[in-house]
Structure formats: structure tokens, C-alpha cells
User: Which sequence fits this backbone?
């Protein structure tokens, strides 16, 4: 009998991968964790427990501004009343401002709203600040972004007041 005949009927798979076995207990625990997360999130949404509420009672200062992209990559800060440019954000700077404005512009596109309506920067009685888009109802609380960002938006408010 030749060597070739001796291996007939046997199939040897040299590249066989080991079978992965996940214990049933681990699967049950993962399933229970997913169910618990969904129930907890639903209960929080329904009852308000564990959610963050930012109730802005009264704005002590509000400034309306429009932001227009410039050909050089900067942003013109425009007074909506006079249409005059009251400030310029240089290209490459103010990453947070650019990110927030792009996000709000995208939201306006989704709602088929142009760039004409002004945004408002608000300082609230409790010291918080927000950037609001009255045309979409969207509000971005500026507090979590730190003091440097609040200082920058305060500068923008000053630009808008000196129009």
C-alpha cells in the first residue's frame, strides 16, 4: 500500500480554528445588564429621576448675533440690526465656537431654515451662559466647556453690544 492510499478516507484540516464556547451564565448576565440599562433609562426619562435639568429662570443679558463664513476661513460676527460686521473670528481659532456653530447650522439645514435668523448668547441670573437658536429652539449650555469658552462668548457679547 502506498502512502497516498493509506490516507484515503481521512480528512485532516490543518487550519481548523478552535471552537469558541461562551458560558451560558455570562450570556445571561450580559442580557440582564442590557435589560436593566433599558429599564433604568426608560424610568429616568419617564419620571425625570436621575436626569439633569437646566432651568434658566431669567436672562440678565441677551445679545443677538449672526455668524457668516468668510472666504479666508474666518467667521464674521454680524449685528442683525445694522448688518454691520462687529467682529471677526480668525481662521483656525476658536474650535469650540466653530464646532457649536456648525452643529447648529446643520440643525437649521435639517429644518430647512437658512442662515438669516440670529443666534442669541444669554447670560442667566445664576451665572450660566448659553448659545440659543430661537429658530430651532436648540440651546447649548456653555458652562461645561470651561471658563475660557465662557470668556470667549462674553467677548462676543461685548462685540454685539457695541454695534
Assistant:
Amino acid at each position: 500500500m502506498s502512502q497516498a492510499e493509506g490516507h484515503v478516507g481521512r480528512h485532516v484540516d490543518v487550519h481548523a480554528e478552535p471552537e469558541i464556547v461562551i458560558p451560558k451564565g455570562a450570556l445571561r448576565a450580559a442580557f440582564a445588564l442590557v435589560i436593566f440599562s433599558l429599564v433604568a433609562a426608560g424610568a429616568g426619562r419617564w419620571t425625570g429621576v436621575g436626569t439633569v435639568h437646566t432651568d434658566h429662570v431669567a436672562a440678565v443679558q441677551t445679545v443677538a448675533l449672526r455668524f457668516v463664513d468668510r472666504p479666508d476661513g474666518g467667521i464674521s460676527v454680524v449685528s442683525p440690526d445694522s448688518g454691520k460686521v462687529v467682529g471677526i473670528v480668525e481662521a483656525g481659532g476658536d474650535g469650540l465656537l466653530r464646532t457649536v456653530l456648525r452643529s447648529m447650522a446643520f440643525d437649521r439645514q435639517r429644518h430647512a431654515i437658512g442662515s438669516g435668523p440670529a443666534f442669541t448668547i444669554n447670560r442667566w441670573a445664576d451665572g450660566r451662559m448659553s448659545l440659543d437658536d430661537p429658530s430651532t429652539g436648540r440651546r447649548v449650555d456653555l458652562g461645561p466647556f470651561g471658563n475660557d469658552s465662557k470668556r470667549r462668548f462674553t467677548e462676543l457679547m461685548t462685540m454685539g453690544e457695541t454695534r
Observations:
- The chain has a mean pLDDT of 82.
- Residues 59 and 119 are 15 Å apart (CA to CA).
- DSSP finds four helices and six strands in the chain.
